[in-house]
Structure formats: structure tokens, C-alpha cells
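Colleagues,

For the teaching module next term, I've prepared a clean inverse folding example: a structure given as C-alpha cells, and then the sequence designed for it. I'd like students to try predicting residues themselves before seeing the answer, so please don't circulate the second half yet.
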């Protein structure tokens, strides 16, 4: 489901534009309107600013400035020019407007091209449904990414979304997932929470941040907005930035992390074809029964995404058919984690180049392959780089 979290996050950022939650039907004031008329109108509609435009002048007035004028005095004296820093394109991403709010410390921005406003967006527009949709998608991606990381850090297959039958090790609720993640101190640390203050403080920091995210998800799921969760709109921007910061860390660890390469190099290659376990690596390893180098490829669980047994079996079946079609010599083996329950059906292939082996693994969405010689076991990423190696018989 979340094979490429980076692309999905980009989709979430780009799909919701400023025009989707800004007020795009502006009513302009005329520079010659009396102050009382405009202040009354602004008060009735809870406006802090309104654009002002006629044939000779474009700008805006604020309620605070108008209240300093006499009731019958023209608002012309209170007009402020519109500069580029207070304008944002209607097609800008939601991330862009949040960055602009953060960098300018402003509570509002005009929406438009050039210096002619077509709409206005304020911090209070963060309560709009489009923003809630944006946030909910981010939190769902974050949950999926944490599930995948937890699965590899604990060597326990965990699907990206909760399974219907609640298999062992598969947290069904977000709070259960977060509790399990918090138990993995190395993972929590790699997600950006400092170890300098000790493990208890480390886990406490992670709990505080993720509890805020969990509560927000519950609010959004019940039709409430992020503004229901905070004291003021600026705090809402900080909360969103907090989600993005953690999601960015999760994305980077899903894409590439030292832990996953350590898991690969510690994988046990086993032949179970005759009902016994015949080890191709480790202290009990046999001499390789095929001409080296041998490349071991799996079609299951692409990029650590845990698929159903039925889907994995289908992928394995078609990889087997493809190997037969190419007339390659192969044996069926398993890759097993040294700890935990991770086990994947794989194929040990003779007479194929490293480049072709990597290309084949890439077609099945894999992160890496194994290269075995009589003396060495190497983990090769599908881009051809050797990530880890060790003596095969040790």
C-alpha cells in the first residue's frame, strides 16, 4: 500500500492547493467609503483586513487602523500597499503557505498573481476540510511507515495497515503501534529524539510528540479540525511542522538505513527441499552445491512491505516461471532472519550476471539480492552497490 512513501507525501503536499481552503470570493472596499461603513462590515464578518480597489488605487485596510479614523472619514488615509511578501499563488501547495506563515509571522496572506488579490487565506482557514484531509493523509502515511520500520527492527512481519485477523505482532490500534515503537530505543533515537538525556527522557519525548499526533488523528476522524486541538492557530502550524518533521525522518529510514543492511547480512540462507535444514551460510554451512557466484533473489514482501501469503505465493510462482522461461539453473531456498519470524521463499540462481540479477530483483520491487561464493556472502543493493559482506562459513 505504501511502497513509496516519498511519492505519496509529495502527492499529499501538491494535491491540496491554497485555492482549496482560502476565501476566493473577495468583496472589495472603495477608497472613498466611510470608515464606519467598512468597520461595521468587517466586524459583522469577522474580517481583520479587506482589499481596497478602484481605478487608481490597489491596497488593503486593517480593522485596527480604520478604528483610529473618524466615522465619516474616507478609508483612503488607512490604505496600505500590497507587497510581494504578503501574496501567494492560488496554485501554491499547502506546504508553501505554511512555510510563508512561519517565515513572515503573519496571520493572513493575499492569494493572487502579481499585486492583484483574488482571495485571502488566514491561519483560521486551517479548520477547513481540505486541510483536515491533508493532515489525515499525512498521519496515515506516518502510521504505515512506522509499522514497516517496527517490522524490520523487530524481525517480525507487520503489514503496512492492520490485518483483519490481528496476527501475532501486528498492532491493531495506533496507540499499540506507538507503544511498541517506543520499546525500540535505537529506532526512536534514529527518528530524531536525542539520547543525550537518557533513555527515559528519549522515550518520553517520543511519547509526547506521538500522543499529540494520535489525539489529532482522532479529532480529524470525528470531523473536527486541528484548531480544536490547539490554543491558537500559530500552534496549529507548529503541530503540522511537527508531523512533517517526524514523517520526513520515517521516510528517510524506510528508504535507506543501516539497520536494514545489518538485517540482510545476518539473513540465513537455508535449503529445506528434503525436509531438513541445510545451511548455505554460517558455522554449519555446506560447500555450495552450485557453481558460484550464486545470486539469491526473492519476489516476496517488496521493500519490506508485508504482503498476504496468497500474494507472496503468486509473486513467487511467477518468478519461478520466469526463471524456467529464461532456462536458468536454480534451486529453491529460504531467507530467514537470525532472530524473529521473518522468512521468505527465494531462488538461488546459477549462471546469471550480477547486473541481470539486480535487474530481475528490481522488477519484483526488491531492495537487494545476495551474492554467494564459496568464501563470501555479499549483500548487493539493486543499484549494484555492495552494502555488506562477510565470510560465508562463519
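(Answer key — instructors only)
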Amino acid at each position: 500500500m505504501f511502497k513509496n512513501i516519498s511519492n505519496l507525501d509529495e502527492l499529499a503536499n501538491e494535491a491540496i492547493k491554497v485555492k482549496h481552503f482560502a476565501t476566493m470570493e473577495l468583496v472589495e472596499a472603495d477608497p472613498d467609503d466611510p470608515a464606519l461603513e467598512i468597520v461595521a462590515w468587517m466586524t459583522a464578518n469577522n474580517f481583520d483586513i479587506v482589499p481596497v480597489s478602484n481605478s487608481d488605487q490597489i491596497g488593503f485596510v486593517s480593522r485596527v487602523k480604520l478604528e483610529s479614523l473618524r466615522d465619516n472619514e474616507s478609508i483612503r488615509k488607512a490604505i496600505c500597499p500590497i507587497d510581494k511578501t504578503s501574496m501567494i499563488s492560488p496554485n501554491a501547495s499547502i506546504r508553501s503557505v505554511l512555510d510563508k506563515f512561519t517565515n513572515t509571522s503573519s496571520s493572513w496572506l493575499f492569494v493572487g498573481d502579481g499585486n492583484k488579490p483574488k482571495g485571502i487565506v488566514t491561519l483560521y482557514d486551517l479548520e477547513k476540510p481540505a486541510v483536515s484531509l491533508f493532515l489525515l493523509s499525512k498521519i496515515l502515511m506516518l502510521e504505515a511507515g512506522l509499522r514497516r520500520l517496527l517490522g524490520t527492527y523487530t524481525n517480525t512481519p507487520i503489514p503496512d495497515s492492520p490485518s483483519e485477523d490481528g496476527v501475532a505482532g501486528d498492532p491493531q490500534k495506533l496507540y499499540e503501534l506507538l507503544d511498541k515503537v517506543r520499546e525500540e530505543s535505537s529506532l526512536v533515537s534514529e527518528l530524531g529524539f536525542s539520547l543525550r538525556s537518557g533513555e527515559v527522557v528519549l522515550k518520553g519525548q517520543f511519547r509526547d510528540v506521538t500522543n499529540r499526533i494520535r489525539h489529532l488523528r482522532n479529532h480529524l476522524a470525528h470531523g473536527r479540525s486541528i484548531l480544536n486541538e490547539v490554543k491558537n492557530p500559530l500552534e496549529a502550524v507548529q503541530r503540522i511542522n511537527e508531523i512533517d518533521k517526524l514523517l520526513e525522518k520515517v521516510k528517510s529510514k524506510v528508504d535507506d538505513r543501516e539497520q536494514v543492511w545489518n538485517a540482510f547480512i545476518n539473513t540465513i540462507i537455508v535449503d529445506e527441499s528434503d525436509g531438513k535444514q541445510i545451511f548455505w551460510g554460517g558455522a554449519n554451512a555446506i560447500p555450495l552445491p552450485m557453481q558460484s557466484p550464486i545470486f539469491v533473489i526473492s519476489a516476496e514482501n517488496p521493500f519490506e512491505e508485508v504482503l498476504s501469503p496468497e500474494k507472496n505465493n503468486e509473486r513467487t510462482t511467477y518468478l519461478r516461471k520466469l526463471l524456467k522461461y529464461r532456462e536458468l539453473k536454480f534451486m529453491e531456498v529460504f531467507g530467514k532472519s537470525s532472530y524473529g519470524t521473518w522468512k521468505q521463499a527465494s531462488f538461488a540462481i546459477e549462471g546469471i550476471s550480477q547486473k541481470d540479477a539486480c535487474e530481475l530483483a528490481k522488477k519484483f520491487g526488491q531492495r537487494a539480492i545476495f551474492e554467494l561464493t564459496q568464501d563470501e556472502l555479499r549483500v548487493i543493493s539493486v543499484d549494484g552497490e555492495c552494502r555488506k559482506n562477510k565470510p560465508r562459513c562463519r
